[in-house]
């Protein structure tokens, strides 16, 4: 179906993990149809990951976080009007919405492409904006779901790759060797592993550690740094996405809950120790072989709730459990 397509618009504004997963779709399309020009709509906060990407011809940014505030309604309307004109002028042959939410579906419709594609099972009635709907089970891993869309357009999947832009190695990284990366928090309160558990596992394992995160993680990361007495160093809130790529590539492996940064580490070729409680590794676990998934076995897991009063599923994954599993994993 893509043989005669000259220009494709990919709508995937967020979040980090979803964007990384969508790189597999990008790679499949370009491997099968290298002459297609691909434009990508992305949220400003993740623009860096796609800027100067060798397979992307144009990056279009949107300020989706501003859209959430009703006080910004006038600016939001103005931005959508501007976006509509910009997209219509591009004359896309096809627009593919891999986000599957109302706003991404609406953007897909604004593009005025003759073919507007997305998932039949998309949420928030976004499928109403599509004239080509692809049905894939929501229990399928996100990467494989996106590749099913590529197959629906005639792509043959020879391999699964997550092509990244050129990393930028920060000066401070030269000081680190033989280290493990720790990702201490996620956007979902329910997915967070207790802070004392991170401190304990750092003390138990025979490695130095690098703690990464956003600015909102700085305080907790600093506590880990303090209580581990030199075994861990925090750069939370001080790195760009391209610097994180460099850090991941240099690391031994990564210990993390279910978070978007975990998927970036996997895209960098790193093995991860992934801690799963309220979410399903079948849907959003680290893609590929060789990773260690430590999962809660409680009957309420996975619940897919963003907030939990007692976080029992994450608390039952104790540092001793993780230590034992890591020792076994490293021995294989």
TrEMBL record:
Catalytic reaction annotation: an L-alpha-D-Hep-(1->5)-[alpha-Kdo-(2->4)]-alpha-Kdo-(2->6)-lipid A + ADP-L-glycero-beta-D-manno-heptose = an L-alpha-D-Hep-(1->3)-L-alpha-D-Hep-(1->5)-[alpha-Kdo-(2->4)]-alpha-Kdo-(2->6)-lipid A + ADP + H(+); an alpha-Kdo-(2->4)-alpha-Kdo-(2->6)-lipid A + ADP-L-glycero-beta-D-manno-heptose = an L-alpha-D-Hep-(1->5)-[alpha-Kdo-(2->4)]-alpha-Kdo-(2->6)-lipid A + ADP + H(+)
Pathway the protein takes part in: Bacterial outer membrane biogenesis; LPS core biosynthesis
Domain of life: Bacteria
Biological process terms in GO annotation: lipopolysaccharide core region biosynthetic process
EC number: 2.4.99.23, 2.4.99.24
SUPFAM superfamilies referenced in this protein's UniProt entry, alphabetically: UDP-Glycosyltransferase/glycogen phosphorylase (SSF53756)
UniProt membrane topology term: Peripheral membrane protein
Gene3D superfamilies from the UniProt entry: Glycogen Phosphorylase B (3.40.50.2000)
UniProt subcellular location: Cell inner membrane
Pfam families: Glyco_transf_9
GO cellular component terms given for this protein: cytosol; plasma membrane
GO MF annotation terms: ADP-heptose-lipopolysaccharide heptosyltransferase activity
Keywords: Cell inner membrane, Cell membrane, Glycosyltransferase, Lipopolysaccharide biosynthesis, Membrane, Transferase
Family to which this protein belongs: Belongs to the glycosyltransferase 9 family.
Name of protein: Lipopolysaccharide heptosyltransferase 1
């Amino acid at each position: 179906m893509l043989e005669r397509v000259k220009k494709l618009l990919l709508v995937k504004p967020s979040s980090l993990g979803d964007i990384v997963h969508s790189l597999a779709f990008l790679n499949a399309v370009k491997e099968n149809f290298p002459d297609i020009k691909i434009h990508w709509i992305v949220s400003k906060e993740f623009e860096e990951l796609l800027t100067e990407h060798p397979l992307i011809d144009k990056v279009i940014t949107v300020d989706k976080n501003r859209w959430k505030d009703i006080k910004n309604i006038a600016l939001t309307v103005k931005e959508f009007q501007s976006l509509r004109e910009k997209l219509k002028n591009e004359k896309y042959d096809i627009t593919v919405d891999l986000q599957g939410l109302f706003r991404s579906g609406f953007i897909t419709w604004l593009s005025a492409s003759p073919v507007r594609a997305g998932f039949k099972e998309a949420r928030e009635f976004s499928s109403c904006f599509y004239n080509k709907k692809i049905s894939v089970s929501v229990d399928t891993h996100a990467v494989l779901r996106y590749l099913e869309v590529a197959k629906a357009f005639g792509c043959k999947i020879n391999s699964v790759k997550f092509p990244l832009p050129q990393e930028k190695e920060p000066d401070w990284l030269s000081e680190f060797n033989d280290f493990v990366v720790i990702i201490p928090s996620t956007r979902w309160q329910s997915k967070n592993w207790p802070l004392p558990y991170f401190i304990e596992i750092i003390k138990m394992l025979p490695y130095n550690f690098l703690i990464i995160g956003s600015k909102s993680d700085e305080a907790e990361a600093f506590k880990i740094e303090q209580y581990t007495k030199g075994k861990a160093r925090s750069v939370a809130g001080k790195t760009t996405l391209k610097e994180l790529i460099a850090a991941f590539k240099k690391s031994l492996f990564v210990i993390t809950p279910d978070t978007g940064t975990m998927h970036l580490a996997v895209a960098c070729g790193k093995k991860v120790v992934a801690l799963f409680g309220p979410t399903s590794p079948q849907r959003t676990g680290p893609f590929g072989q060789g990773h260690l998934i430590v999962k809660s076995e409680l009957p309420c897991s996975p619940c897919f709730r963003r907030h939990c009063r007692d976080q029992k599923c994450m608390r039952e994954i104790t540092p001793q459990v993780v230590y034992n599993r890591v020792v076994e994993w490293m021995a294989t």
